[in-house]
Automatic annotation (TrEMBL), chain A:
This is Cytochrome c1. InterPro entries: Cyt_c-like_dom, Cyt_c-like_dom_sf, Cyt_c1. PROSITE patterns: CYTC (PS51007). SUPFAM superfamilies: Cytochrome c. Keywords: Heme, Iron, Membrane, Metal-binding, Signal, Transmembrane, Transmembrane helix. The lineage of its organism: Bacteria, Pseudomonadati, Pseudomonadota, Alphaproteobacteria, Rhodospirillales.
Automatic annotation (TrEMBL), chain B:
Heme b b566 binds at residues 107, 208. Binds 2 heme groups non-covalently. Its cofactor is heme b; heme. The main subunits of complex b-c1 are: cytochrome b, cytochrome c1 and the Rieske protein. This is Cytochrome b. The keyword Transport applies.
Length: 253, 415
């Protein structure tokens, strides 16, 4: 029986392990994200740098429709700062008393204003390809943050021999099929960080991914800290139940 | 039922008119339970616990959800981002489904190993399978509600199975969809049924318990209870043992909820449903994978659908297929081996179901499907030729001697 147990267990392990390996594209390099593990939390300074990257680079083409300006409070921005950030964008509102629609500066309660009014406009401006919404990007791809980091840093100026890339497409090692319509978005020193962090290509990419992960899982900090407390509680409770069980069952012997 | 005396006058007054206290005392306190149940017997109560967790979290999720294809995806994200502890409710519910199935699968295989489906527990077994069937329907429809890519395409693939039925198939599919594709009417009816079916499960669980308390629990030795010396009252012995089980289950379940909430999920379901873009691999949730593998193993659509449903239907006939009178695998050396092979076959089927049907996976899937169905005639033959080990006289006999049941059986075999 033990033999069968081991064989079934091995089969179960295989079932879990193989799909990951069988995925298309090269193996993604696992990065040391600050939020990994039960005690992992976001690095707020990194999130703010990532927001800067998003604001200056990503948001020129990509929307982030599920995140509101008020959510930036999580990153440590004050209310006035958030108001100022929101007010840079215009949103359509109305109708007013006259029955007219009008434009007004965005408020903290508004969701991030997308760069294009609709998908068609986004396609026209982006060479026919639709830049996906980034709200859930790190949750919506196999590999999560490592995959997005792989995309940002996986561009090659010249594709490997025998591979031809059509005009308007780029070679990327992490992208399934390796043909991506997004031009390489980050270069060294493309942003200037206020906190003095050196803006290498890798640093910019990491910060951007951290921000995207926060956008996809804004509850993560709270989830992790509540989780640790809850599990300690349940662990002690289970031990007490077990001790009680031993004591009650002792009556039978 | 009546005849119980309660010290409290009000309790006594109520009980004479509506015997809720008598029934509770009889079936949850005094209920005579075999004294030798091992921890595999915990999974029934654990499944019941998960059902309650699912209904409770589900009710509060329903207060914030809206079944409309234009907003369903956004509304689920609204729960995740804006509703107080909405993320916790949703992750509890989403992973709760997986843990409900884990408990039920272990519960079913426990019943298989210890022969709990044999006379007089045939209806108990059948009711359990009915619960499992309704669970599958409920889980499938629940998976459609977030209206992500896998929701949409999973619903499209699974509902399309019914089009394999000759003559009326297409009409049935149109009826299921409420239109000519998976669309808003589909989402609406799935939501209504997803809210209704858990209460059907609840009613079936009640009947399952009535049947259980009529035939009484099986036990690891698979022999009948011979008298009061073989049993102990359910409370406090098994209530406290069930609490230990709930503690351990919570540890694992909550660790997943808090630290790996999307472990069982598909990343594609965080992409809003798009009827114009088909995901590269459409896979159902993990608990359907063995049946998905059987479906794809048969190179004919109707044949595949029949085999898939047949794989479940045949389980209803298990009490009559298995010709051995001995229940527990403990005393059936060959059956014990075959049981583990069968379990391995189910796991291999699950693995095949998770893979794109190409190359060797197809071959492995077909062999495993054949092995799955071969298990049943084999069981029938086995009952005729297998020589079981001698059974102990009673549950308490080996326990009283201070030796474990296995030892007692071995001694008797030598004698």
């Amino acid at each position: 029986m033990r033999k069968f147990l081991t064989s079934t267990f091995a089969a179960a392990l295989l079932a879990v392990a193989i799909p990951a390996a069988a995925e298309e594209g090269p193996a993604l390099e696992r990065q040391n994200w600050s939020w990994h593990g039960p005690f992992g939390q976001y690095d707020k300074a990194q999130l703010r740098r990532g927001f800067q990257v998003f604001r200056e680079i990503c948001s020129n083409c990509h929307s982030m429709k599920l995140v509101a300006y008020r959510n930036l409070g999580d990153l440590g921005f004050t209310e006035d700062e958030i108001k100022a950030i929101a007010a840079e964008k215009q949103v359509q509102d109305g109708p007013n008393d006259q029955g007219d629609m009008y434009a007004r500066p965005a408020r903290p309660s508004d969701r991030f204003v997308p760069p294009f009014p609709n998908d068609q406009a986004a396609r026209v401006a982006s060479n026919g390809a639709l830049p996906p919404d980034l709200s859930l990007m790190t949750k919506a791809r196999v590999g999560g943050p490592d995959y997005v980091y792989g995309i940002l840093t996986g561009f090659k100026d010249t594709p490997p021999e025998g591979v031809t890339i059509p005009d308007g497409m780029y070679y990327n090692t992490a992208f399934p099929g390796h043909q991506i319509a997004m031009p390489p978005p980050v270069n060294d020193d493309q942003v200037t960080y206020a906190d003095g962090t050196k803006a290498t290509k890798e640093q910019i990419s990491k910060d951007a991914v951290a921000f995207l992960n926060w956008a996809a899982e804004p509850e993560l900090d709270q989830r992790h800290s509540l989780g640790v407390k809850t599990l300690i509680f349940v662990f002690v409770m289970t031990i007490l139940f077990y001790a009680l069980k031993r004591k009650i069952w002792a009556r039978l012997h | 039922m009546s005849g119980q005396k309660f010290d409290n006058k009000i309790v006594q007054w109520v009980d004479e008119r509506l015997p809720i206290f008598s029934v509770l005392k009889e079936s949850a306190v005094d209920y005579p339970t075999p004294k030798n149940l091992n921890y595999w017997w915990n999974f029934g109560s654990l499944a019941g616990f998960m059902l309650v967790v699912m209904i409770l979290t589900g009710i509060f999720l329903a207060m914030n959800y809206a079944a409309n294809t234009a907003i369903a995806f956004g509304v689920v994200e609204h729960i995740m981002r804006d509703v107080n502890y909405g993320w916790l409710l949703r992750y509890l519910h989403m992973n709760g489904a997986s843990f409900f199935f884990i408990c039920v699968y272990i519960h079913i295989f426990r019943g298989l190993y210890y022969g709990s489906y044999k006379a007089p527990r045939e209806l108990l077994w059948a009711l359990g399978l009915l619960i499992y069937l309704v669970m599958m329907g409920t889980a499938f429809m629940g998976y459609v509600l977030p209206w992500g890519q896998m929701s949409f395409w999973g619903a499209t693939v699974i509902t399309n199975l019914f089009s394999a039925i000759p003559v009326v198939g297409d009409y049935i599919v149109t009826l299921l969809w409420g239109g000519f594709s998976v669309d808003n009417p589909t989402l609406n009816r799935f939501y209504a049924l997803h809210y209704l079916l858990p209460f059907v499960i609840f009613a079936l669980v009640f009947l399952h318990l009535v049947a259980l308390h009529t035939t009484k629990s099986n036990n690891p030795l698979g022999i009948d209870v011979t008298g009061p010396q073989d049993t102990i009252p359910f409370h406090p012995y098994y209530t406290v043992k069930d609490l230990v089980g709930i503690g351990v289950l919570l540890l694992i379940y909550l660790a997943v909820v808090f630290f790996a909430p999307n472990f069982f999920g598909e990343p594609d379901n965080y992409v809003p449903a798009n009827p114009l873009v088909t995901p590269p691999h459409i896979v159902p949730e993990w608990y359907f994978l063995p049946f998905y593998a059987i479906l794809r193993a048969i190179p004919d659509k109707l044949g595949g659908v029949l085999a898939m449903f047949g794989a479940i239907v045949i389980l209803f006939f298990l009490p009559w297929i298995d010709s051995s009178k001995v229940r527990s695998a403990k005393f059936r050396p060959i059956f014990k081996q075959i049981f583990w092979i069968f379990l391995a076959v189910c796991l291999v089927l699950g693995y095949c179901g998770s893979q794109p049907p190409e190359g060797q996976i197809v071959v492995v899937g077909r062999i495993a499907t054949a092995a799955y169905f071969l298990f049943f005639p084999l069981l029938w033959v086995l009952g005729k030729i297998e020589k079981p080990k001698p059974l102990p006289q009673s549950i308490s006999a080996p326990v009283l001697k201070g030796a474990s049941a296995g030892h007692a059986a071995q001694k008797m075999e030598k004698a």
